[in-house]
């Protein structure tokens, strides 16, 4: 029996799994502790249900996922608005150095993914499904680039990317806290913890203040960036390379944000744009999760496990030995290690949860609480999309 859902029914199903995921998160401590997104919780259960129906021959579900692309573009446009060069400049040397380390991590994750896939006799593009797409990128980037890789005849790429992103969320949360704790206690770093100026944190928070009468203006700013972005995307495709559909909108949004910041002629409603982006991400993930075909993972179970285990080893070695030493070998650097494990394999909320666990046990780190959200939320996704696009076109 074939069950076909149209565009509106698919969206309604996505909202139902969102509500189910949110309910389960409120009841199951494990899900809340590891910051598993509600769409992933509910969507994965629904995907398991459809997989059982397919394998047993009871039913085969078909979805109209037209709105998935619309929600995806809105979300990544909101990410483009985060690219504030004024914040990067005012963040000082530490912010620039940390951003450089994150770029190195993104490149390393893809190099390791491509190299290991070749050793295992797999297509490098399958390797990319376990690189920075799901690791630094998380579920949002996984859902966006999965269909791009499927256009290169990588069957089940979206399912692989999503599975890898879920693994990353859990693993990044598991290893971040212990690594930070080990560094602090082994090297007696608590003595190096000093109070710092948090004025930049306060200033940035004030810029994100919400006003209910500004949500319409925020929607219009998103739509204008998307419209201009289609022109940018058109010219980018003329280069002969493959770009995700949202890349032009991200560039347009970044231009809008920085022109507004430096000219002072207009205000970008960042708080409202962040909220709208969050809603779009939830709907996008909901639709992406319910359309997963888990049976496509069967043949790749062992190679996928090996690729993901190597990624976990990479983040541990990178943060413990390289990032810790470059960022100052002090208490702040150790907290940054815990945070980087969180968003380097999962998402910024995981990073914040890791750092909160460390800081509640010892003392606060204003530097880490400044750098991780700024780089993890404002710049990492933007840069990651560019790096992934480069790798896909040149491997």
Unreliably modeled segments: none
**What form results from the Cα inertia axes?**
globular
Terminal CA distance reads 41 Å
Mean pLDDT: 87
| Run of helices and strands | EHHHEHHHHHHHHHHHHHH
SS-based class:
mainly alpha
Helix-residue proportion: over 70%
Strand order of the largest sheet: 1-2
The largest pleated sheet is described as: 2 strands, parallel
Determine the strand fraction and express it as a percent band. under 5%
Could you characterize the architecture of this molecule?
With 395 residues, the protein is mostly helical. Helices cover 75% and strands 2% of the residues. Strands 1-2 form a two-stranded parallel sheet. Helix 1 crosses helix 3 (38-56), helix 1 (7-27) crosses helix 13 (270-290) and helix 9 runs parallel beside helix 14. The mean pLDDT is 87.
Helix and strand topology:
Blueprint: E1 2-5, H1 7-27, H2 29-33, H3 38-56, E2 60-63, H4 66-80, H5 85-90, H6 92-119, H7 124-128, H8 138-150, H9 157-186, H10 199-207, H11 215-237, H12 247-263, H13 270-290, H14 301-326, H15 331-345, H16 348-361, H17 366-394
Parallel strand pairs: 1-2
Question: Summarize this, please?
Answer:
By secondary structure, the protein is mainly α.
Which terms summarize this structure?
two-stranded parallel sheet; 2 strands; 2% strand; mainly alpha; 395 residues; globular
């Amino acid at each position: 029996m074939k069950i076909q859902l149209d565009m509106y029914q698919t969206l309604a199903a996505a909202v139902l799994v969102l509500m189910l995921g949110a309910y389960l998160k409120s009841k199951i401590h494990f899900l809340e502790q590891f910051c598993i997104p509600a769409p992933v919780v509910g969507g994965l259960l629904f995907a398991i249900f459809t997989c059982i129906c397919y394998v047993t021959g009871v039913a085969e579900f078909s979805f109209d996922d037209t709105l998935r692309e619309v929600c995806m573009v809105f979300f990544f446009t909101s990410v483009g608005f985060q690219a504030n060069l004024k914040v990067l400049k005012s963040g000082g040397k530490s912010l620039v150095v940390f951003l450089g380390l994150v770029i190195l991590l993104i490149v390393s994750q893809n190099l390791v993914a491509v190299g290991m896939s070749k050793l295992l006799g797999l297509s490098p593009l399958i390797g990319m499904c376990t690189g920075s797409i799901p690791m630094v990128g998380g579920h949002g980037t996984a859902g966006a680039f999965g269909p791009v890789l499927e256009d290169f005849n990588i069957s089940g790429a979206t399912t692989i990317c999503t599975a890898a992103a879920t693994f990353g969320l859990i693993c990044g949360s598991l290893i971040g806290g212990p690594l930070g704790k080990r560094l602090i206690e082994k090297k007696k770093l608590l003595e190096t913890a000093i109070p710092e100026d948090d004025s930049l944190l306060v200033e940035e928070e004030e810029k994100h203040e919400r006003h209910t009468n500004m949500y319409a203006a925020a929607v219009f700013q998103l739509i204008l960036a998307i419209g201009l972005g289609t022109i940018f995307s058109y010219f980018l495709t003329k280069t002969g390379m493959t770009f995700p559909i949202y890349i032009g909108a991200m560039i347009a949004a970044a231009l809008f944000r920085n022109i507004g910041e430096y000219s002072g002629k207009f205000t970008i409603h960042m708080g409202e744009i962040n909220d709208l982006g969050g809603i779009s991400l939830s709907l996008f993930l909901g639709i992406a999760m319910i359309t997963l075909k888990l049976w496509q993972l069967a043949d790749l179970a062992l190679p996928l496990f090996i690729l993901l285990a190597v990624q976990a080893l990479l983040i541990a070695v990178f943060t413990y030995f390289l990032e810790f030493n470059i960022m100052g070998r002090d208490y702040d650097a150790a907290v940054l290690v815990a945070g980087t494990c969180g968003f380097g394999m999962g998402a910024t909320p995981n990073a914040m949860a890791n750092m909160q666990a460390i800081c509640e046990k010892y003392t606060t780190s204003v530097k880490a609480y400044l750098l991780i959200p700024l780089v993890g939320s404002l710049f990492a996704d933007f840069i990651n999309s560019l790096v992934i696009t480069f790798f896909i076109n040149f491997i």
